[in-house]
Sequence to fold (165 residues):
Amino acid sequence: MTAAEKKKQPLIWGALVLTLATTAWVAASDDAGQEDILVKPRPRASSAIVDESRASATNLAYQPRPPIEGEPEDIFPGDAPPEEIAAAAPPPKPVTPPLPFNYAGKLVEDGNALVFLTHGTRNLAVRSGDVIDGVWRVESIRPPTMMMGYLPLKTVVPLVIGETN
Fold:
């Protein structure tokens, strides 16, 4: 046992003794001063007098109702049956997303073009036929446009790169 624990232990025992003594004192003092107090009920108006017109309006006697005709409707419908789900309109065709690249510049040497693109914090230098992230392919580079193919949908999207100077 450390020195700190030795100092805390008497305090804990003292708190326990104080709690038990206070509990015993409160329990003893609660019983001493209590007396039963009787409260007389207030007189009320007699409820035996009932308005006859009101009594006939609330007659709870059996009243026949007409029989149910036909098939009752489902008041707690659940999920649609599978045939209704299948009959729903087909989902729309997927569309090509916008190009995630920004044009940064180009370099043309001997008719071969090298285009510089930015994609977030990445800088890319691409030529015709290059595949980017397995999703986009550079189809052709013919200034003033560069054609980018979106591979999952096999669609082509143009990117304006400007004329060659």
